[in-house]
Amino acid sequence: MKFPKFQDLILFENDNLIVVNKPAFLSSLDDREGGDNNLLRMAKQYSDDAQICHRLDRETSGVLIIAKNPETYRLISMQFEHRKVNKVYHAIINGTHVFEELHVDLPILNLGAKNVAINRQEGKPAETVFNSIKYYKHYTLVECRPITGRMHQIRIHLASQRANIAGDEMYGGKPVYLSEIKRAYRIGKDQEELPIMKRFALHARRITFKIDENTEMTFEAPYPKDFATLIKLLDKFDS
Fold first, then answer.
1. In the chain, where are the structural domains located?
2. DSSP letter string over 1-18?
3. What does CATH list as the number for 1-82?
4. Which of 36, 48, 57, 105 is catalytic?
5. Is 225 exposed, middle or buried (0-12, 13-18, 19+ CB in 10 A)?
6. What is the pLDDT of residues 48-70, one digit of tens each?
7. Is 168 a catalytic residue?
8. How much of the chain is in helix, strand and coil states, percent to nearest 5?
9. Which CATH number is 85-238 given?
């Protein structure tokens, strides 16, 4: 898969760090299988000592912090460890759901092989706050604020509320097809209809953290084309 140049992903850069808008389908770090391009490799080609400070799922797009030196990596890692980083994601979920500061507090157990489960006995603490932003007939645009940073946390916490992310088949989400929202939509006789988004609809929208000891900053990642297109079509045909 062809990705933009690393320079084209940059939202902010100074002497110590880079903030990028990660494209979907690009792994944050090396996969065990190796071979595939990933954000860390791209970052190291751009800046020798680059280290990724947190990760996003391969299919998740959005804002991600890269440190250019060990001191900055430490500064940002400590903020993540002490839950001082404010993260905001946007998700499009199946169904209409009214969330007003819904606080989901369900422990998550990492089962290995990129699988997790809710497990109240053995899971690690996991908390997310959800707010509905926009309602459609069959979908909802939701703001997700993870307080902890467990693998697949937002995805499984939404699934626990029967509010699965559109396209997230691993957790029961169904993809969005134009034929389902556009009246009188007809597909050609021998054509197979593809979903509007070829991944689950989750985007890391905004992040707030200290870029040095005294300066806190917020960075926002614009929606990628597929996410923006889905919202545009929902606005047009499912409002």
1. 1-82, 85-238
2. -----HHHHEEEE-SSEE
3. 3.30.2350.10
4. 57
5. exposed
6. 999 999 999 999 999 999 999 99
7. no
8. 20, 30, 45
9. 3.30.2350.10
